[in-house]
Amino acid sequence: MTSEATETRVMDAIRERRELVNEAIDEELPVDEPERLYEASRYLLKAGGKRLRPTVSLLVAEALADVEPLSADYRRFPRLDGGEVDVMAAAVAIEVIQSFTLIHDDIMDDDDLRRGVPSVHRAYDLDTAILAGDTLYSKAFEIMTDTGAAAEDGLEATNMLASTCTKICEGQSMDVCFEERTEVLPEEYLDMVKLKTAVLYGDAAATPTILLGADESVTDALYEYGISAGSAFQIQDDVLDLTVPSEKLGKQRGSDLVEDKETLITLHARQQGVDVDGLIDAETVEEVTEAEIDEAVAELEAAGSIDYAKETAAELAARSEESLQVLPDNESRRLLEDIAEFFVTRGY
Amino acid sequence: MTSEATETRVMDAIRERRELVNEAIDEELPVDEPERLYEASRYLLKAGGKRLRPTVSLLVAEALADVEPLSADYRRFPRLDGGEVDVMAAAVAIEVIQSFTLIHDDIMDDDDLRRGVPSVHRAYDLDTAILAGDTLYSKAFEIMTDTGAAAEDGLEATNMLASTCTKICEGQSMDVCFEERTEVLPEEYLDMVKLKTAVLYGDAAATPTILLGADESVTDALYEYGISAGSAFQIQDDVLDLTVPSEKLGKQRGSDLVEDKETLITLHARQQGVDVDGLIDAETVEEVTEAEIDEAVAELEAAGSIDYAKETAAELAARSEESLQVLPDNESRRLLEDIAEFFVTRGY
């Protein structure tokens, strides 16, 4: 299939589920007292987002239960043993965790914008942003403990969500530390990406298998799917920062280089002897010229660093597709394959 | 019993359990990678703390199981139906949540000191403090989902911990909002105290009843015990700030007044027509004189506001002791009564 056809199928699958996910977010996170706290907590969730992780969860449930896509009520989804479970609640819990991490990360990175709107600590203030994140954190656990799953499964899914959150904190901490270290190995970077980004995809893919009552081997395989696909997604992000025109990217191309952010590409280049710190003279994205970035990219290309990142991402995507073989061969499984494919072929 | 005798008994009960709690904290929160993150996460827990909430949890378990105090292994504690459960892990989870809230609250209140050492955002930095709090948050849920309780009980205890955390965030948000509001009712203040402080005592007291498999009515009663006792504790704090000499208090007496912090006392005084904002001219605790504070306290006393707070705290303590009547009549239950008593008779 062409990458355009894959993209269309993935975008359709996301769009078809997004309204349902957004409705469920509203139901699970009503505006309560104190109003300002709940508005700040919901602010980023209302500002947009593709709902990639919930889509992965819902597709895994459909693939595993082997039902026609969109034919079953996600709120009363058939378990493998005949009971029912609210897989939508679990999907929302994971998106709520994602939103909490964005709010706190934006504080740590001092980012002013997110999803085209001011970040929470800019739109409100630091205290409210810390507290809005903390509120989403506990709300996610309230939601995950209330899916109507068999108690052992609910407890296992909640334990997995908790250990996922711990790993995300570890990954964020590594990322912050990397900024102060002179030498980081590509393998260490991949470990960081796994913790900071990929484990939440792992959780999104594995949770429905737990709640539906699948075998442990299925849960493990789906967790690996999420880890590989999520890592591929992040590495592709690093590639796109250098290869996509600024207009299409929505920000200055090469901004990672200008801002001295290490990626798999720069770390590989360092190992090849490239003087990464000397690639760009400009100090800010406003100062840098397209010509300067072209030259830097050419040097990284010559060192094989961009190809290395592309190949690493492609390998991870292929590995993630292999993990899906524990699922019945059906339309939803093919969409999960498409998502992994899309993660590394997407042009923005 | 005299209040000194009560205090001695409570302090003994705490001291006898503190070493065990501290050992369990070390076991449940080992230093992992990244080291700096885990050191920052453990920093306040290692700096001290009475372990009041864990002591409440352990005493409730002992009272309910009707075992000799300190005779049973908290890690393999007898359930009412004959099984075993790790009540110590649950107690640690609650203390870990307490520590997370202190770290994030200190950021919001911009407090430099905590337990006699620099607060985490001062000892480390803002980013590390946010992340250390977030790490403790998820660790607490990892621990609470792994007590070896029956799955339904483990899930219920985890759900209660999550909703408790949501309430704490709501309470902290109300507290922050109160600083900007011109008029707050005493009832609103009591609501805030309930959410910000008391619910975690409610959780500490109710959780062991869930994990041991007690009836819902017992869980409800113990939750109420914690709510009443925890609220009484906080109100007594407000009284002590005005009535205990600075040397004994470890900080300037009347600092709440100097810093314009509303308490049940000032809110009651406002209702009695006292010009609370005019009580103290000094802008900082360094400037204020003992004579100025004496005069302010005399005015609050004349308005009946200090007595009102004392009576409210005493009523709450009495109510909390009534809630304990669902427990067997034994030594541990008497210690829980003593704790409630101590909360309102303590002199510091």
The number of helical elements of chain A comes to: 15
Helix percent of chain A reads: over 70%
Strand order of the main beta sheet of chain A, please?
1-2
Name the CATH homologous superfamily of chain A: Farnesyl Diphosphate Synthase
Indicate the structural class of chain A. Answer: mainly alpha
The share of residues in extended strands of chain A comes to under 5%
Radius of gyration of chain A: 20 Å
- Strand tally of chain A is 4
Assembly classification: homodimer
CATH topology tier name of chain A: Farnesyl Diphosphate Synthase
Please report the first level of CATH classification, the CATH class of chain A. Mainly Alpha
pLDDT < 50 runs, ≥5 residues of chain A = none
Greatest interface (CB-CB under 8 A), with counts per chain: A-B, 43 and 43 residues
Distance between the termini of chain A: 19 Å
Give the overall shape of chain A.
globular
Q: How confident overall, as mean pLDDT of chain A?
A: 95
Taken in chain order, the helices and strands of chain A follow as HHHEEHEEHHHHHHHHHHH
Total number of domains of chain A = 1
